[in-house]
Amino acid sequence: MNLYILGIESSCDDTSAAVLCNNQILSNVIAGQAVHAQYGGVVPELASRAHQQNIIPVVDTALKQAKISFDQLSAVAYTRGPGLLGSLLVGNAFSKAFTYALKLPLIEVDHLEGHILSHFIFNEKNIYPTFPFLCLLVSGGHTQIMLVKDFFTFEIIGKTIDDAAGEAFDKSAKILGFPYPGGPMIDKLAQTGNSNAYTFNQANMSGYNYSFSGLKTSFLYFLRDKLKENPNFITENVTDLAASMQKAICDTLMKKLIKAAKDFNINEIAIAGGVSANSGLQTILKKTAIEKKWNIYIPPFQLTTDNAAMIAIAGYYKYMKKDFANLNSIPYTKSKY
User: Fold this and answer.
1) How confident is the model over 287-296, as pLDDT tens digits?
2) pLDDT, tens digit, for every residue of 281-319?
3) For the chain, first and last CA: distance in Å?
4) What range does the domain containing 55 cover?
5) Are 295 and 311 in the same domain?
6) Are residue 177 and residue 240 in the same domain, yes or no?
7) Residue 313 burial (10 A CB sphere; 0-12, 13-18, 19+)
8) What is the total count of domains within the chain?
């Protein structure tokens, strides 16, 4: 018997709906919000208003692309948290009303669980992580190493104590004068730059934890001093600056991941989240995998950013356990992990 899961994702500034047939994507529709670019970051009130405008057209499009009707759906899975409260409330309210009207099971999904379980969406190679595995979950809001024991048993063994790696990318880009989100621009410029041109201070945290605030400060002060000497320093060296900063962030991420893999004796390694699309991180991960004999799992680009397919796949596995929510479920803004 096929299960058709409608996924709803509205944790930040992307409104997304997806339909999965078991673990296979039938549709995955995402509506972004360009309005935030002029403010240099996501404005929560504007985000929630845009979700209200987008959610019905996005769900309608997802169902049409999947070529299924309401009565074929098995359940609706939605992002309960973490995220922006106003944004989450839109997805929460829509999903409750939708399931109540159609008498469908309601499934609540943690956003971070969705990122991790995106590795179990059908792929042509039919290759998936084997439990237990380590997942480096790295995005604009989260940076942590998760020990994944089964589909819903996760243990954080390391995390950032301040800024996320994605935030370090975006704020570095802002210092260089790039619009939000600037992480992809750093990645693009880094590909033609010298990653060893400059060195920035990297935190040496105990255990498997991260810190990126010092790295950002080092980058800021370095540029401040250089601009005093040469007002055109950034313009003349922008590719090398991007490459050097990207290398510093990726080296910091990999150092702890390598330590965790060794200490836990695990060679099944996955990455997830928006920063997993970064070419520098993927390159160093592939190189390390050869050296350490790791089996690595990198999600396709369309599954790295916030999307409803990852919520739907988590919903699929929760459906198999009959793990359903009720209408009293409310969003949470802070991660339970």
Assistant:
1) 999 999 999 9
2) 999 999 999 999 999 999 999 999 899 999 999 999 999
3) 33
4) 4-119+303-320
5) no
6) yes
7) buried
8) 2
